Amino acid sequence: MIYYVTISFFRTSNCMIFPKTDDVVVLITFLTVCALLLKSYFLAEIISHAFMTYVTKGWIQMNSKLKRLNEMYSITRPSSERIKQYMTLDSYYCMTNSEKFLDETCPKHLKQLLHSSKIGDSLCQIPLFQSVDSYFLTLVIKCSKIIRIPKTEIIYYYGDVTRHFFVLLSGCCEVYNSEDNFEKIVSSVCDLGTLEAIFGIPKKHTVIAASDCD
Fold it and tell me: Mind listing the pLDDT tens digit for each residue in 104-160?
């Protein structure tokens, strides 16, 4: 259309600005290129606007969801780093390896105590975390001082991992909450509490004051 309008304009008797054919061709080419560039610019502007609107809207929605998730679970920066570290569960997480892990890590006298108690029957049915159990089993039976163990609030997220913290070989424990208020006394061969968390990440702590009460 641009071609025919331009050529008819320059062929009229009233307006012969460029009498040479070469000049007319150059002008038509120039106007055609300008029209194509302008068309491409507006087309790119429309596509860019639509794309940025879609991306911005999606980013705002995702940012809002992440903010609500952060407020709901109170995930701080240190906790988020620990979540990254625990995203890959160790081989001892599998229930089938729990009994093998207990046999390899428990002291002999504690192993006998566990197998002779009702707690021992259920231990091999619970997923065990190597980092928690190896520390807890070796420490809790030897120390008669304040011990801090993880105790988290319940998180319903793709299923919960529930770990029972067990036992004192002898004596008793005074159990305190995170505000250092006394809760209860537990005797030997008793549960001291549970850990309920996603990937075993502790969010709160319970103070356990252990003393030999034999």
Answer: 655 565 566 555 544 444 444 444 433 344 444 444 444 323 333 333 322 222 223
Give the Cα separation of 213 and 203 in Å (integer). 30
Start-to-end C-alpha separation, the chain: 104
In this structure, which amino acid lies at residue 144?
Answer: S
- Phi/psi class of residue 123: alpha, beta or left (left: φ > 0; alpha: ψ in -120 to 50)? alpha
Three-state SS for the chain is CHHHHHHHHHCCCCCCCCCCHHHHHHHHHHHHHHHHHHHHHHHHHHHHHHHHHHHHHHHHHHHHHHHHHHHHHCCCHHHHHHHHHHCCCCHHHCHHHHHHHHHHHCCHHHHHHHHHCHHHHHHCCCCCCHHHHHHHHHHHCCCCCEEEEECCCCCCCCCCEEEEECCCCCCEEEEECCCCCEEEEEECCCCCEEEEECCCCCCCEEEEEEECCC
* Beta-strand runs (E) in 15-113: none
pTM of the predicted protein model: 0.20
